[in-house]
Structure formats: structure tokens, C-alpha cells
Amino acid sequence: MPSPQPPRAVFAMDPVHLPLLFPPPLMERLRRAADIDPEFVVRDFADPAASGALAWAEVLITGWGCPHLDAGALAAAPELRAVLHAAGSVRSLVGEALWAHGVTVSSAVAGNALPVAEYTLAMILLAGKDAFGHRERYRRTHTGPGPAETAGTGNLGRRVGVVGASRVGRRLMELLRPFDLTALLYDPYVSAAEAAGLGAEPVSLEELLRRSDIVTLHAPDIPETRHMLDRARLALVRDGGVLINTARGGLVDHEALTQELVSGRLSAVLDVTEPEPLSAGSPLYRLPNVFLTPHIAGSLGNELARLGVIVVEELERLAEGLPPRHRVRHADLSRVA
After folding, report:
1. 271 and 295 Cβ atoms separated by less than 8 Å
2. Measured between alpha carbons, how far is 150 from 201 in angstroms, rounded to an integer?
3. Which of 50, 86, 200, 254 could pair with 185 as two cysteines, CB 3.0-4.6 Å apart?
4. Of 158, 248, 313, 314, catalytic
5. Which residue in 81, 295, 306, 317 is the catalytic one?
């Protein structure tokens, strides 16, 4: 009995990401799993030069820079049956037209969760030691801290409030287990028993803010979570508390947070902001109690190959007639990133 033909696939993304997502050995593995031209990448679904490839494609391998898959794109790809996204959220990529066509969607978001959780863990441990504050004081004084300056620091028994048991939030709670830290969790979709299984104490958002030394955000950016940390809730965080945001800037009322940070009452580690990037005049660039990074917590450099591996594995399953392991369902988009 002849073996089935490999699925016909086309890349659709910014080509700059392709070599890191699929380094040579992985690209060879992908080419064994699919009929694909490794040199051809679609940037515009309306481009006449892409029309032949799209008309032929059964699978789109997408990534950062892929245009929105609207009705026009679907009309150009009548054979399309799967979209394998070599990145995180598909929210800006897919729309109602694609779901109506019954196209299978898979995302490498699980692979992107690990570096975000690792970055967050590093920042929690550094914040617990007040590493950023000591760095600033050392720059000014050129002398080490005395006992009075270190009395309130350290990671023994520090309470970490995790907002959102997302993939990142769950991975972070796994990474926290070897340390002498106490995890609190707020997630309205997680039961008390499930939270206990994750190694966290389930609490309300307000209780989490009051009790935590460090608050870290891992909730999705959906209408229900818009500015979930508003002025009133930020005021609940204890004096000297630290906010870490590696999720989305829109989860926090930026004006209220800026006022808290300018006052010096709170500190923050912000990998995402609203807007992104901040205006050149923002005080957050200069405040000693703010550690600001340009959205680097997710996959960078050689970490991108992890996303490529997930896509290739999904493609191999598709070629064997198996369902994807990382399928994204339309109904889930109302409460995930």
C-alpha cells in the first residue's frame, strides 16, 4: 500500500525569523514531514507572486509578521486545512472567517511559556534580594550595604502572588517549588484542589494583593482583565511591594502605576507596558525602583528553535493523520491569550 503524500505547506511570516525558528537540522526534518519550499515565505496574502503557492497549500506555517488570515486570504488558499503557528497567541492572526472554514489551528504557545516563566523566576529572586535597589545605591555610594539596609531583604518565606494559572503561570509555580517561597494564586477558573496541586494557596485578587511581597501577572489580555490592577487595587499592595508584569501592559492602569512608582511606594519589573514602547519622556525609564526591559521575556535567539520543534512535531502528527497536541479552539479564545 503506497504511503500517503506529505502535506503541502507554505511559510507565512517575516522571513527574518525563519533561520532561528528552523535551524538547518530542524529544517531538514520539516522537509521530510512536508512538501515545502524552504526559501519561499509569504508576507502578503494579496501579493500576486504568492497566489500559486497559496492555492496549492494545505498547511500554513505562520509566525511573527504573518498578516491576518481574513476572508481574502482564505479565498486565496482554498485547500487550506491547518495553520501551525510558530509563536504564541493566535488572537491577532485568526478571525471568524477561518473558524467558519473549520481550519485546524495549533500554536507553539507552550514552548514560549518556558522562557517567560524562567525570566519571571529570575526577577522574583533578584527582587527578593533587592538586587536592583542595591545596584542603584552602589552606583551612587561605591560602598556596600550595612545591616540596616538589608534587614528587609531575602527570599526566605517571601510570598509570591501569581495572578493567572496560564501556561506561564503554571510553569512558574513549578519553578518556584524548590525555593523557600510561598505561592498565592488568583485565578477564577481554578478550583481550590487544583491550586493545591499546583503548590499554591487559592485566594481572591484583593487578598493576594494585600498579602504578597511580590505580585506577578500571568493573566490573558481580554476585556474582563483590562486594567484589572486599577488605582484601588494597586493601593492594596503593601509598601515596598514589587509588581512584575511579563504578560500584557493593558492588565494594569498605567497612569495609576506610574504614580505609585514615582512616589517610591512600590517597585516594578516591567517587560511589557502600555503603550509599548513608552513615550520617550516617561519617568519609568529613569526611576531607580523600576527595572524596564523591551518585551524580552518570551523566546529570543536560540530559544526560538523550541517553537520550531513544536511546529515540526505537529506537522508530523498531521502527516500521520493524528490530531495536534497544541490545538487552539475557538471557544477558548474568550479566556486565553
Report:
1. yes
2. 28
3. 200
4. 248
5. 295
Grid coordinates of 286: 529613569
- 248 catalytic? Reply is yes
Which residues of the chain form beta strands (DSSP E)?
Answer: 9-12, 41-42, 59-62, 82-85, 104-107, 158-163, 181-186, 201-202, 214-217, 242-245, 267-270, 290-292
Alpha carbon of residue 294 to chain centroid: 13
- Per residue in 31-90, pLDDT (tens digit) is 999 999 999 999 999 999 999 999 999 999 999 999 999 999 999 999 999 999 999 889
Q: Find the angle CA(137)-CA(140)-CA(141) to the nearest 5 degrees.
A: 85
| Nine cell digits for residue 267 | 517597585
How many whole angstroms separate alpha carbon 267 and alpha carbon 214? 9
Sheet holding 201-202, edge to edge: 201-202, 181-186, 158-163, 214-217, 242-245, 267-270, 290-292
DSSP states of 130-188 as a string?
THHHHHHHHHHH-SPPPHHHHTT---TTEEEEEE--SHHHHHHHHHHTTSSEEEEEE-T
Pairing of strands 214-217, 158-163: parallel
pTM comes to 0.93
Q: What is the mean pLDDT of each run of 10 residues along the chain (337 residues)?
A: 78 97 97 96 93 96 94 94 94 88 94 97 97 92 89 93 97 97 97 97 98 97 95 98 97 98 98 96 96 96 97 96 93 73
Say which of 149, 224, 276, 325 is annotated catalytic: 276
Between the CA of residue 319 and those of 18, 21, 98, 109, 323, what are the distances in Å?
A: 22, 20, 21, 21, 10
* 251 neighbors 217 (Cβ within 8 angstroms): yes
| 304-319 vs 24-33: helix crossing angle, rounded to 10 | 20
Report the pLDDT value the prediction gives residue 3, as an integer from 0 to 100. Answer: 54
Q: Do 176 and 153 contact (CB within 8 A), yes or no?
A: no
DSSP string, 181-223: EEEEEE-TTS-HHHHHHTT-EE--HHHHHHH-SEEEE----SG
